[in-house]
Amino acid sequence: MSFFDSELVQNEIKEIQDMQQTIYKDSIGYIAMTSNQRLEHISKMEVLLEKQRILHTRMELDPDPKAKEMLNKMKMTATSLGIPDGISFNELFKQMDEILKGMRLSIETPS
User: Fold this and answer.
1) CA angle at residue 68 from 63 to 72, to 5 degrees?
2) What is the H or E stretch that residue 18 is in?
3) Cα separation of 11 and 50, whole Å?
4) Running DSSP on this structure, what letter comes out for residue 2?
5) Chain segment 25-53, per-residue pLDDT in tens
6) Which of 15, 99, 26 is closest to 51 using CA atoms?
7) Is the pLDDT of residue 97 over 90?
8) What is the DSSP string of 20-86?
9) How far are the Cα atoms of 26, 46, 105, 106 from residue 71, in angstroms, in the given order?
10) Arithmetic mean of pLDDT, 62-87
11) What is the value of pTM for the model shown?
12) Residue 105 CA from chain centroid, whole number
């Protein structure tokens, strides 16, 4: 059975895609959000990031050629978005974690 034939994997991909759409849509109004709404939005991004990290790790560990092909496509997409070739997805996930922590801290810490 292929990696992507797994019902669990298909459900996770669908959930990630749904979360991405919701977060992208909600991000448009981020400036107008209250502090509590912003914190909730950041929480959703943190959950999404963790789901993406888990799916990425599963693809790295699975020997299925389709999973490896998807990893290559992800790397090409990241490069096309300006992410340097030498940065691993694990490093990228860490950087995104730090950005989200910084966003949260800027809201929780009074000026």
Assistant:
1) 165
2) helix 7-27
3) 15
4) -
5) 999 999 999 999 999 999 999 999 999 99
6) 15
7) yes
8) HHHHHHHHTTGGGS-HHHHHHHHHHHHHHHHHHHHHHHHHHH---HHHHHHHHHHHHHHHHTT--TT
9) 28, 21, 32, 33
10) 92
11) 0.90
12) 20
